[in-house]
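Before going further, learn to read the protein records used in this course. The integers have meaning only within a learned vocabulary of local backbone shapes. The record below shows the convention in full.
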Amino acid sequence: MNLKPKKKLGQNFLIDNNVIQKIIKCAEISYQNEIFEIGAGTGNLTKAIIEKNPKQIFLIEKDKKLYEILKNKFDNKIQIFNEDILKFSKNNLFSSNTIIFGNLPYNISSQILTKFIFNFENFKFKMLIFMFQKELAERIIAKVNSSNYGRLSILSTWKFNINKVFDISPNSFFPKPKVKSTLLIFTPKKISSKFNNPKSLEKITKIFFNQRRKKIKKQFNYIFSDNPEVKNKLNIDLNLRPQNLSPETYFNLAGEMERLAD
């Protein structure tokens, strides 16, 4: 491959056709679906998507040179944006039939995921099919009481049902990364929130997990000013550590924080 990947953009191009076909099979793409691909790179996955004949295909590629290559390569089969996904705001492109694919750059993959979490009401979609560094994927799907469980686990499970599909060898990419990747599928949940503002959950989890190895008593009292009502209402043991509290408990804590602030 003559094109030199840019390290600053976290570019690792997927070149393994067997993996590409496995990714495509994760979604039953039909003429009813709009497809949105983040960081299309050299277009290997794009080509396989086109072969499924979806209703529309949107690509976003930040690299100007790759943008031009993709535009010339696929011509009128796609609509492509030379933009940064973290600043992208054309939410009118998304519908309940939109399937979003992304071989995400390692350096901003968690930021891309949180963009979809916190802009959930603006970006309608059927599912996200995202590839992450394996270590980050393990944090996203981690369960309560595990060492990987943390803020990203809680924020992700608030909005999505998440399934791990498979791990991907470094040999499937160019250049070859030093770590494995993991493919995850996110499907939106129908939720009734215990809180109104997503920033409340973000704040609660940030305060608690800033001292993840310590008991939660200090953080709890900082947020709730030693108010025993919340502790009793939610039946929380203040001798626990942040990783011992379930996502549901954090949702309830965010709701209580909002209620007491009114």
Remarks:
- The chain has two domains: 7-188, 198-261.
- The radius of gyration is 20 Å.
- The domain at 198-261 is CATH 1.10.8.100 (Helicase, Ruva Protein; domain 3).
